[in-house]
Amino acid sequence: QVQLVESGGGLVQAGGSLRLSCTASGRTFSTYVMNWFRQAPGKEREFVAQISSSGSTYYVDSVKGRFTISRDNAKNTVYLSMNSLKPEDTAVYYCNRGTDWGQGTQVTVSS
Predict the structure, then answer these.
(1) Residue 59: how many CA atoms within 13 Å on its side-chain side?
(2) CB atoms within 10 A of CB 105
């Protein structure tokens, strides 16, 4: 079982930026599709972004043009750069690979 450890969350004003990081254990990081999900209070967990092993990226419509997912295989790390943050982006953000999940990191955007 892989361990996923997120970091980088925090409190930011609307319009601000944050970069989340997720570091994975194991030696085969580069071969896996990596995802970011988020869960806002009282809502179901939703898909945010994905990056394939080849670097192809996919985003939920609500974050297109504002969020960027990237990966550094040498560091076993996937990133989520978030710009032009909105209060509706407030959620716990989770890193995911297959059936493995991180513990989550809180992002709070104040208006």
Answers:
(1) 13
(2) 22
pLDDT tens string 10-21: 999 999 999 999
If DSSP codes are grouped into helix, strand and coil, which group holds residue 35? strand
Within a 10 A sphere around the Cβ of 19, how many other Cβ atoms? 14
Neighbours of 43 (CB within 10 A): 9
Sign of the torsion angle spanned by Cα atoms 25, 26, 30, 33:
negative
Confidence band of 1 (pLDDT split at 50, 70, 90): confident
Sort strands 105-110 and 10-13 into parallel, antiparallel or unpaired: parallel
Residue 6, Cβ density class (10 Å: 0-12 exposed, 13-18 middle, ≥19 buried)? buried
**Token reading at 92:** 């716990």
